[in-house]
Amino acid sequence: GQSLEQPSEVTAVEGAIVQINCTYQTSGFYGLSWYQQHDGGAPTFLSYNALDGLEETGRFSSFLSRSDSYGYLLLQELQMKDSASYFCAVSRTKAAGNKLTFGGGTRVLVKP
Amino acid sequence: GAVVSQHPSWVICKSGTSVKIECRSLDFQATTMFWYRQFPKQSLMLMATSNEGSKATYEQGVEKDKFLINHASLTLSTLTVTSAHPEDSSFYICSVPGGIYEQYFGPGTRLTVT
Asked: Residues with Cβ < 8 Å from B53, sequence gap 6 or more?
């Protein structure tokens, strides 16, 4: 089967740095992406890694190690609006119409 | 990115009735759309892949006769929950692929079956 493991919840204060880890076990791997979802809202795309290394997009960075089947999302300079759920997702093949398998999600709570 | 709409945004129906949910890609032609279900504080579970011009592809464990999908055009896919029961109450979200790794999600439809 396919499995993606993430911590269920993380709490941090404004201005802090949070790292959300994701380990995956899937039959086939093409890339790892990250999505943010506020309560009651739609998931929105944050970042994607197909190759090993760090991708930086403003305050958010994402890392991938294919040999370790592991990635993480780094949230820097946390703001209250970053309180949301964050999901890692695996694209298993290029040809699968980019069908995604999602992790269980990590709820991030930012406190003042 | 693509703008995706869903209608209705929420619906309450009685047990045993059917409910149709629409997903529209407003500025992007989509030969493929995805339907997900999400229970409170849980992950997105892919239900099926909607294919324009052909039958939908359902994930293992999803009843195709209960969740009817019709990809009517390059901008519209519909999900009909037939003979709905309280356990079908959930948040249903569609998405449009925007490339190999990115998907654009609709705002979701909250279904409550009483």
From this structure: B31, B71
